[in-house]
Write a structure and sequence with these properties.
Distance between the termini of chain A: 50 Å
Strand content of chain A: 15-25%
Number of helices of chain A: 15
Oligomer: homodimer
CATH superfamily of the largest domain in chain A: NAD(P)-binding Rossmann-like Domain
CATH topology of the largest domain in chain A: Rossmann fold
Number of strands of chain A: 16
Largest sheet of chain A: 10 strands, mixed
Number of domains of chain A: 3
Structural class of chain A: alpha/beta
Chain lengths: 431, 431
């Protein structure tokens, strides 16, 4: 048996505590997988005095990152602190002092990825980040290694468990957004401040990372068009269901004719397709490769042990040397990779519109006329019971058309004198 | 740019031709992934004269394996010949002459895996076999690498596309087994002799390989209890549907209290769960790990390009050095891994029974009495219209109970004087 590998765990929140537990509880199994024991040599956290019930002697826990970065016996550090600072400074400190780093911090990579990966390369170190996207689902390895023979055509993902829990619970219980958000907070599926989850930020940062792996271009996450789930209401879900769809927050990146289109937004997904069957806090990713066709992955995208599972798999990969190879060969976040401007959110697909119209003659003809002027043809129309106080909801499903064309038509409709509220427009995914 | 890696492709059938096409068509992309060009230096096939329309000069194709194994410029060989011989001799020849081997031949690995892996180790070579199980789905990497931090609790898979095509088409079209088998043969989803697909052999060989990766024990595939799909009829499917289930050929390996239970058999899978939503020639695998929870993978399990995608990914992994590490560290098919006797097919689960009974008083009480004597409690009973000529079908769903106990009760029932045909007993999977 070889010498143990000594690891530093930076951050003892939910995920960090899970990593310490998993490394200790499954030590025998992990030793077999890595070919040598992996031991937690030191941990770093803000509140050193707090008893977390972890199998870590008190003198191994410190608030100072340097106890890990300056310890020459430590070769790998798991950076499990959220947010941008001090996470960024900590990672740089670790890399500059010769540690390979494993992290679950997607915001950090989405914001500072190119800089951090460049620093890692300069110091001959690696950064592994399977846990940063879709938790326990090995989607980073799938795209970066397993589907390496494929040119990826598209990625669609449910990448945020909190918003998926809210949407699927609203649908199943016929409940309102605000009520379900409170339930999610009570159950621990949503944080006290859930804004990064429900406004699509978290999913967008993950999409930026996946798109880099899949398409080899680095798109700053802030440039990806993004709509959150705050505007989804029970009435919208009922209309979708009537047409055979559910509503999910879907992150999409797709390439056609050399153009890359990306967006994160609520979308209608057809009942019976895998994304529509993704419920609760689960994550799912559907990828189309030119050789492999459509692949689908589903699993727990967050939570203590699923995320710890991905972090420890990355630690094992780093210890045995696979990470160093992948990091070198796939040029992940290589500073030379083109920083792409995306082609915008324009995609050709079916669209779902809910228009609040006044209940008077000629309105339907007016709306459909505007759509026609913008070259949009209509697949079906549902005009529901005009009970709503805020105008009659008119639900329209278009044939496949450009998102930009629909956006133009919606602006035109909303500027007309027959609507009594803003039109909701969602993309529709049939497969 | 480094020197190209020269590859030999042995076998130019469907998969071999796909591999040559993919390596040529996607050469630029694959060069980026591997860090150097990968070129097909030579190919071997039986019928050298046949024009396959491949981008390979005629003088590079031979019927003699030695043109690859003795060519010192070739470092990696893709062995894409089916069956046991000459595939086994070819692989040994390649390994003994210093080639790393990539293969899609699951029968060869299931039958001779330990011997071949030992020869590879002795010669310092590796064998990669992602394509041998579930085609394009990266399940070998998922279990061997991505879920390395987990103790795997169970694997359930739809691992044979032909039988899944037959079952899902029978269900969707209400058609008979024989008719759909002919359709599958006409469409190219089933071979002229489909026996290895429909009798469960193919799925069982794949399960033996997956179970080795997941549980570290080598179970000879012939010892795994196996039932094919030949006995599934439209009436059985209708009864299953009435209870909210579909029928799929499911390969299961599960561990509890240190015992490993394995089997391949048609099973009832609940409508709405991922295995039930796996249709046509698709494959699917559901894995439960102690940390990650339940993961689900879905994709094309066979076909030219999906399989070629997995083969080329393995070639890339071999070229960059990841395969050598995985082969060394995870001890795949290590001769020292315990050759396990499985605990049998005994699993505690719900069971579905269809009993053909005579239409006379007291029969239901007699059958349920026998079940009671064997300690089996009943969840529901459906007695359908006694129109069938071969006795009245009585459909029973049990509560969770041991498969062995149910088998005992079924033997008892079939030996009684109230039945008019053999009882069908299938396991039931609710999640």
């Amino acid at each position: 048996m070889s010498e143990p590998v000594r690891v530093g765990v930076v951050g003892l929140g939910t995920v960090g505590s899970g990593v310490v537990r998993l490394l200790v509880q499954s030590a025998d199994h992990i030793t077999r997988q890595a070919g040598r024991p992996i031991v937690v040599e030191r941990a770093v956290c803000r509140d050193v005095g707090r008893d977390r019930g972890l199998p870590l002697p008190a003198d191994r826990v410190s608030a100072d990152i340097r106890t890990v970065s300056r310890d020459p016996s430590i070769s790998v550090a798991a950076l499990l602190v959220g947010g941008l600072e001090p996470a960024r400074s900590m990672m740089i400190d670790l890399l500059e002092h010769g540690k390979d780093v494993v992290t679950a911090n997607k915001a950090l990579l989405a914001e500072h990825g190119p800089e951090l990966f460049e620093i890692a390369r300069r110091h001959g170190r690696s950064i592994a980040f399977e846990a940063a996207v879709a938790g326990g689902i090995p989607i980073v390895a799938a795209i970066g290694e397993c589907l390496a023979a494929n040119r990826i055509e598209s990625i669609r993902g449910i990448l945020n468990g909190t918003s998926n829990f809210i949407l699927s619970t609203m649908e199943e219980e016929g409940a309102d957004y605000a009520d379900v958000l409170h339930l999610a907070q009570a159950k621990g599926f949503a944080e006290a401040d859930p804004s990064m989850d429900v406004d699509g930020t978290d999913a967008t940062q993950k999409l930026a990372i996946l798109a880099h792996l899949a398409f080899g271009v680095w798109v700053p996450w802030g440039e990806i068009p993004r709509t959150g789930i705050e505007g989804v209401d029970a009435d919208l879900m009922a209309s979708a269901a009537e047409l055979g769809y559910r509503i999910r927050l879907v992150a999409i990146a797709s390439r056609s004719e050399g153009r890359l289109a990306m967006r994160v937004a609520p979308a209608l997904v057809k009942i019976g397709t895998p994304l529509a069957e993704t419920r609760g806090a689960f994550n799912a990713v559907s990828i189309v490769g030119d050789a492999v066709g459509r692949m689908f992955f589903h699993g727990l995208g967050a939570g203590q042990m699923p995320t710890a599972s991905a972090v420890v798999a990355d630690i094992i990969d780093t210890v045995v040397g696979r990470t160093a190879i992948t990091f070198r060969t796939t040029g992940v976040l290589d500073p030379d990779s083109p920083a792409a401007r995306i082609a915008g959110a324009d995609m050709v697909q079916k669209h779902f519109l809910r228009v609040r119209v006044d209940d008077r003659p000629g309105v339907l003809s007016r709306i459909t006329g505007i759509l026609g002027e913008h070259g949009i043809s209509i697949a079906s129309v549902i005009q529901r019971d005009p009970a709503a106080a805020d105008g009659v909801p008119l639900v329209i499903m278009t044939h496949a058309c450009s998102t930009n064309a629909v956006a133009g038509a919606v602006a035109h409709i909303d500027a007309s004198d027959v609507v009594s509220g803003a039109t909701v427009c969602l993309g529709v995914l049939d497969d």
